[in-house]
């Protein structure tokens, strides 16, 4: 078992899903039930159990099918009342496997056949991430909205370069991909960490917030399997809640996130609705630190990150195209980003990286207000033009992003790549951008790769998406004109 790879372990775990599909379980249900059983089995193998007496693996795993079913449900109920990491993983837990015989197959023939303590932490963690990845690729389940492609995550983390002692926060952490990539990056880049640094990395360095309880459960298990918050008494690295509801109480050295796209959010402000209800009024003015008052969720997440980031910190956030060109609140936030923060790099992403068709997004890199590094320019890397990906048939790979990683370098003011400007990347003077009415950052230029490709099916698809983007921009201008009349 010690020689088993993460890939073979994923295949082994996943093959049982087909058995349970006949019992009405969806892919997310299966991953959830596996999470419970894997945690219980691994806790049973530890010398210092995390579980209360009578609520562990041994209490049900040796029973026959009729006896196992109710006992397993009792264990889940007991654990759902616990605090800490147990409370997060088992909160509202219930057995969704209605057939006792199939439950016993899963317990005895799959999870119970492996001595998980003999499997390396890397293999266990990678195997669980592999399950989450397969779950995300099932677009019918909707799980993909929580899963940022790992190669993109790794590229972003490589550029931002979190270091030992820094606090890394993801305010919309999903299943924890950014936090795990940052954790792996620090361990891989710094081989000589002392015991105190390792303890800090396990207990303090990684923090995430997730709105959806079921997803927070997966994130907590994911981090636990990678050694984060894995010891008795360790603080829980994942909080369940809405990041936008409260002002941050501490600063983050590094913020890495892909917040949910969408317009309507939970934080609103008076004047945005003509007659807000009593319940809506409770959401108004809850964030005095958000300087631009808007009901737009994605804009408020961007402001939240600006408030969360330490003065010398670094941030990378995935944003949709409309954040770069819309007027009103979006323009005010862009002006603040360009004038008060060191906003230095924009990575323009192609369609097909995420699950919703036609979604165009970007990664915006900026540093805190006192991190006045760089050359006063916004560097834009066009990874969009002439690139086409698909979640299922042609997923993005890390090697696809090596050109950007090389071009990014370190924003110290020196040229960051031998690649000439005008090909894939180009710099823009921030003062020039600030001098325009809306500080638009939806930047393109002539002489780039879009001028070097032949018109074909792929390019026609890109043009169609660009037309949609232009229509969005036109509608935004019409709305602004209407509000001013």
Please characterize this protein's 3D structure.
The protein has 485 residues and is of the alpha/beta class. Helices cover 42% and strands 11% of the residues. Strands 3-2-1-4-5-7-6-8-9 form a nine-stranded mixed β-sheet, sandwiched between helices. About 6% of the residues have low confidence.
How would you concisely characterize the structure shown here?
The protein is built from 18 helices and nine strands. It has 485 residues and is of the alpha/beta class.
User: How would a textbook summarize the main sheet?
Assistant: 9 strands, mixed
Structure classification = alpha/beta
Percentage beta strand: 5-15%
- Summarize the amount of helix as a percent range: 40-55%
Number of helices: 18
Strand order, main sheet: write it out.
3-2-1-4-5-7-6-8-9
Series of H and E elements? HHHHHHHHEHHEHEEHHEHHEEEHEHH
Q: Overall 3D geometry?
A: elongated
Low-confidence stretches: 139-144, 269-275, 411-415, 451-460
- pLDDT average, as an integer? 82
Radius of gyration: 24 Å
Describe the SSE topology.
Layout: H1 6-15, H2 17-21, H3 27-45, H4 65-79, H5 84-90, H6 100-110, H7 121-137, H8 150-160, E1 168-170, H9 177-189, H10 195-203, E2 206-210, H11 213-225, E3 238-240, E4 252-257, H12 278-281, H13 297-308, E5 309-320, H14 322-325, H15 329-340, E6 342-348, E7 361-367, E8 377-382, H16 402-408, E9 425-429, H17 430-434, H18 457-484
Parallel strand pairs: 1-2, 1-4, 2-3, 4-5, 6-8
Antiparallel strand pairs: 5-7, 6-7, 8-9
Helix pairs in contact: 1-7, 3-11, 4-6, 5-11, 7-11, 8-9, 8-16, 13-15
């Amino acid at each position: 078992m010690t020689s088993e790879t993460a890939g073979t372990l994923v295949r082994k775990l996943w093959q049982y899903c087909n058995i349970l599909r006949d019992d009405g379980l969806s892919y997310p249900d299966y991953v959830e039930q596996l999470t419970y059983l894997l945690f219980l089995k691994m806790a049973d193998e530890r010398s210092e159990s995390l579980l209360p007496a009578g609520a562990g693996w041994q209490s049900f795993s040796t029973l026959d099918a009729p006896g196992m079913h109710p006992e397993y449900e009792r264990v889940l109920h007991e654990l759902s009342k616990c605090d800490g990491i147990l409370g997060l993983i088992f909160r509202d837990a219930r057995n969704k496997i209605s057939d006792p015989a199939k439950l016993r197959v899963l317990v005895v023939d799959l999870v119970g056949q492996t001595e998980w303590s003999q499997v390396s932490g890397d293999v266990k963690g990678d195997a669980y991430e592999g399950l989450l990845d397969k779950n995300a690729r099932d677009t019918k389940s909707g799980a993909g909205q929580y899963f940022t492609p790992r190669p993109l995550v790794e590229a972003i983390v490589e550029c931002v370069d979190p270091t030992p002692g820094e606090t890394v926060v993801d305010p919309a952490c999903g299943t924890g991909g950014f936090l795990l990539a940052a954790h792996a990056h620090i361990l891989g880049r710094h081989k000589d960490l002392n015991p105190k640094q390792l303890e800090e990395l396990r207990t303090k360095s990684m923090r995430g917030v997730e709105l959806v309880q079921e997803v927070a459960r997966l994130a907590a298990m994911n981090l636990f399997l990678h050694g984060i918050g894995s010891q008795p008494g360790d603080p829980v690295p994942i909080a369940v809640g809405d990041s936008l509801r409260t002002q941050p109480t501490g600063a983050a050295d590094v913020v890495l996130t892909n917040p949910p796209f969408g317009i309507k959010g939970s934080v609103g402000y008076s004047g945005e609705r003509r007659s807000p209800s009593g319940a809506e009024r409770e959401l108004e003015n809850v964030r005095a630190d958000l300087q631009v008052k808007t009901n737009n969720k994605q804009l408020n997440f961007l402001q939240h990150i600006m408030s969360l980031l330490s003065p010398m910190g670094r941030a990378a956030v995935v944003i949709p195209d409309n954040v770069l060109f819309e007027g009103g609140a979006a323009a005010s936030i862009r002006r603040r980003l360009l004038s008060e923060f060191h906003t230095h790099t924009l990575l323009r992403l192609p369609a097909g990286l995420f699950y919703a068709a036609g979604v165009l997004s970007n990664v915006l890199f900026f540093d805190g207000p006192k991190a006045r590094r760089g050359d006063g320019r916004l560097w834009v890397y066009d990874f969009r033009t002439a690139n086409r990906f698909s979640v299922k048939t042609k997923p993005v790979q890390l090697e696809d992003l090596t050109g950007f990683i090389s071009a990014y370098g370190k924003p110290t003011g020196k040229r960051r790549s031998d690649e000439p400007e005008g090909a894939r990347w180009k710099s823009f003077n921030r003062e020039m951008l600030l001098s325009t009415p809306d500080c638009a950052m939806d930047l393109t230029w002539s002489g780039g790769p879009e001028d070097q490709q032949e018109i074909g099916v792929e390019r026609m698809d890109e043009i169609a998406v660009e037309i949609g983007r232009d229509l969005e921009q036109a509608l935004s201008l019409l709305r602004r004109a209407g509000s001013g009349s």
